[in-house]
């Protein structure tokens, strides 16, 4: 019997989940839920229906794991605890500072209702978090570094688009090559934000807009840009659509650590991702976690979990015997 | 209370365990066991004694986890099941083809005696296995590649040392740069052994030895060298001791996979290690696994496990709350 997946929210991430289900023979798409008008939505999978988000609870017995594809700012803090009442759920909550409170909220509901909720799945938080944990557990005397990019930051792109005179924009976060190289060589520098990443912006301005003012506004924007070296390129809408349509991302987690009686030996552990599509890769991680949620639930587990709590074997469709034989 | 560690076998790996214990404040070295004469052994840790291997069972209640530092060829197939009777144990059994039978043997004894045994810990098998599993679970449509090196292969070095006229030798396994680059760029080539790695040998010949014959013997040695491009350098003992004293190793696991409705997007996941000391890094992984064995045992678990079965959080000394707050 395959794992019946429900998708809550059909944006880039929801569509990514739909595509990923097709690659996992032990899963099937049961239903898609939306807050938009269901009849206005066209999904890719034949024979699967779209329903109003408000009706999701009616599908309690038809869905094994509900994937929550909303945003971390306003959707997930409400949706994840709410749906954990009726469903095993997986989300990609990525506001790092608020993970402890989100975890506590979801854990309470999931425990009360005997469901499994896996939060903060994706690549950061997610695979990058795992890499940080494993590397730190192995090499206690060392330093973790995380570099993001080159890739599109949705938050920074949004911030630019809100500036007066901007038609559309995309911001790439780019790791500083010298910093990455130094860490990769086993050094443990103290890096400021400016020494770690630079920000490259491609902006389409509206007719008659003051480009000098836009550039100035971007470069001095607190939190988002002021602490970084930022370059701004004004381009045409045509160029924008031709060269900046994708949502690539990636990055690297590096830990350099010392071992030996006198700490005489250096080891460098690196985990890196080069992703053509940020939402599709995130969706792929989420789906592996959905498999784990399903199995944990069947074993009688409940409560909120993160990737830190999941035995790696639970993510794979292979049996323990097969895993030991083919991958160990 | 700290985790009391016993070391069985005091070679490079055993010494690596001893050094790693010093970096983990929640652990202490309880005893070292050896098959040599205990009084002939000088260990680094003050106040800790060396005992005959045959007396280990007397320390059943004084040791939480016994680390088995023997070799995979003849020691561990006997030692791991034998000691799993009285102890929670961790080994680094690395004969990939024999892992299933080793697992079965150890599992039976551990289950009968209520102990936890974690086998095949290290970096391959170990961290590389985890990387293969995670990447495959996330990207079902893709291909795993493992490249080893540049680093010293103990087995190949031994094979050369057994040749007539060889005083000592070291063999470096070197990944073929073009192959690594192709995979890193998202291609999925079919690679023969020769297209994946080359072998570089540094040989000190005995006086009067026939170097041409030695070189010929190495290059045509079946299994070890015949399927690879191999270079042989004859050097002096002085050069050998100056330039080839270390035991560096490392390598990289790369998976390129496709996502999207039409598989239009490519993702590259890479985990790589650059290690100054192969045995010390292996020891560091083993010790994190020892922590997991200790915790699993306290929770009432028993039987044989591998890294695939261990929730990542169990490897870290941090609490779940701390992990979520600092590393997720």
Q: Quick one: how many beta strands of chain A?
A: 14
Question: What is the CA–CA distance across the termini of chain A?
Answer: 27 Å
Portion of residues in beta strands of chain A equals 25-35%
Fraction of helical residues of chain A: 25-40%
Weakly predicted, low-confidence segments of chain A: none
Task: Determine Rg of chain A (CA atoms, Å).
Answer: 22 Å
Return the structural class of chain A: alpha/beta
Strands in their spatial order, largest beta sheet of chain A: 3-2-1-4-5-6-14
Shape of chain A: globular
Largest sheet of chain A: 7 strands, parallel
| Oligomeric state of shown chains | homodimer
Task: List the keywords.
homodimer, alpha/beta, 7-stranded parallel sheet, 4-stranded mixed sheet, 14 strands, 26% strand
Provide structural commentary.
- Two copies of one chain form a homodimer.
- With 328 residues, chain A is of the alpha/beta class.
- Chain A is built from eleven helices and 14 strands.
- Chain A has a seven-stranded parallel sheet with strand order 3-2-1-4-5-6-14, sandwiched between helices. A four-stranded mixed sheet of chain A has the order 8-9-10-11.
- The two termini of chain A are 27 Å apart.
- The interface between A and B is large, with 71 and 72 residues.
């Amino acid at each position: 019997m395959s794992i019946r997946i429900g998708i809550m929210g059909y944006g880039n991430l929801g569509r990514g989940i739909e595509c990923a289900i097709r690659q996992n023979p032990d899963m099937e798409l049961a239903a898609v839920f939306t807050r938009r008008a269901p009849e206005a939505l066209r999904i890719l999978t034949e024979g699967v229906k779209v329903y109003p988000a408000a009706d999701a609870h009616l599908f309690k017995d038809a869905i094994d794991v509900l994937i929550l594809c909303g945003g971390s700012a306003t959707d997930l803090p409400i949706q994840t605890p709410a749906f954990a009442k009726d469903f095993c759920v997986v989300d990609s909550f990525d506001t790092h500072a608020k993970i402890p409170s989100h975890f506590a909220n979801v854990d309470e509901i999931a425990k009360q209702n005997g469901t499994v909720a896996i939060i903060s799945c994706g690549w950061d938080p997610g695979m990058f978090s795992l890499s940080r944990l494993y590397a730190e557990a192995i090499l206690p005397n060392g330093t973790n570094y995380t570099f993001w990019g080159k890739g599109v930051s949705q938050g920074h792109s949004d911030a630019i688009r809100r500036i007066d005179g901007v038609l559309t924009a995309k911001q790439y976060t780019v790791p500083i090559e010298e910093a990455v190289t130094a860490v990769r060589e086993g050094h443990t520098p103290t890096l400021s934000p400016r020494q770690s990443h630079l920000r490259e912006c491609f902006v389409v301005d509206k007719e008659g807009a003051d480009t000098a003012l836009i550039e100035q506004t971007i470069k001095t924007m607190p939190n988002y840009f002021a602490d970084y070296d930022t370059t701004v390129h004004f381009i045409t809408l045509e160029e924008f659509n031709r060269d900046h349509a994708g949502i690539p991302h990636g990055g690297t987690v590096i830990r350099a650590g010392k071992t030996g009686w006198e700490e005489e030996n250096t080891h460098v552990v690196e985990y890196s991702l080069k992703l053509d599509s940020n939402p599709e890769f995130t969706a792929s991680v989420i789906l592996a976690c959905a498999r784990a949620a399903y199995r944990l639930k069947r074993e009688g587990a409940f409560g909120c979990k993160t990737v830190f709590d999941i035995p790696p074997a639970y993510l794979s469709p292979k049996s323990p015997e097969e895993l030991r034989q083919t991958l160990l």
